[in-house]
Design a protein that fits this description.
The two termini are 31 Å apart. This protein has 7 helices and 3 strands; from the N terminus they run H-H-H-H-E-E-E-H-H-H. The mean pLDDT is 96. The chain has a 3-stranded antiparallel sheet. By secondary structure, the protein is mainly alpha-helical. The structure holds fe (ii) ion. The site of fe (ii) ion (FE2) has 7 residues, from helix 1.
């Protein structure tokens, strides 16, 4: 059984207001509930004998499994890496990003462009296979991920993440997020990779 993390809106969060944050949190809690239902069905009534790639209950469970679980993971990473008091990444992280992108400003421009180009998520991830960072674009929770990579910074760009507050001003939401990243959290994630 997966337990939801009890996130709370705090004063250091400036990218979204309390109403937007709490509406988003309810969606996250829905994914936790759905995942537990899927796990329960996989354990008790998966109907494996009827598994079929065109249509089957087992296929629906498998589609829902990665969608809901990635939805939980990405939302938790997103809620954790917003806010905070650190203004910029520490030296270690800056050096790592410069190594992969040439300059910090290039990384930032690329992350913003990735977010604008995405329908679901923009993720700064570390590709362990080639040992470099990439900004990747996900159109769904389970569509666009690199199979062997670790997410370090996550931005939700589904409309539900900003529309209540920003309406169609997606670029404003993204720009405000860039000024409200919890770099301490991002740094801790990165330190665990090397
Ligand atoms: Fe979301």
């Amino acid at each position: 059984m997966i337990e939801k993390i009890p996130f709370h809106y705090t004063d250091d969060i400036t990218v979204v207001n309390k109403d937007q944050y709490e509406a988003h949190l309810r969606l996250y809690e829905g994914y936790v509930k759905s995942m537990n239902t899927i796990d329960e069905q996989l354990e008790s009534n998966p109907q494996r004998e009827d598994a079929n790639a065109t249509f089957s209950y087992y296929r629906e469970l498998k589609r829902g499994e990665t969608y809901a679980l990635n939805g939980i993971i990405l939302h938790e990473l997103y809620f954790e890496n917003m806010g905070g008091l650190s203004q910029e990444p520490d030296r270690l992280l800056q050096n790592a990003l410069v190594k992969s992108f040439g300059r910090m400003s290039t990384w930032g421009e690329d992350f913003v462009a990735t977010a604008k180009a995405s329908r679901g998520w923009a993720v700064l991830c570390y590709d362990q296979r080639t040992q470099r960072f990439r900004n990747i674009s996900l159109d769904l929770h389970d569509l666009g991920n690199i199979a062997y990579s670790a997410p370090v910074l996550v931005l939700d760009v589904y409309e539900h993440a900003y529309f209540l507050q920003y309406a169609d001003k997606k670029a404003d939401y993204i720009n405000n997020f860039m000024m409200n990243i919890n770099w301490d959290v991002v740094g801790e994630r990165m330190e665990g990779l090397f």
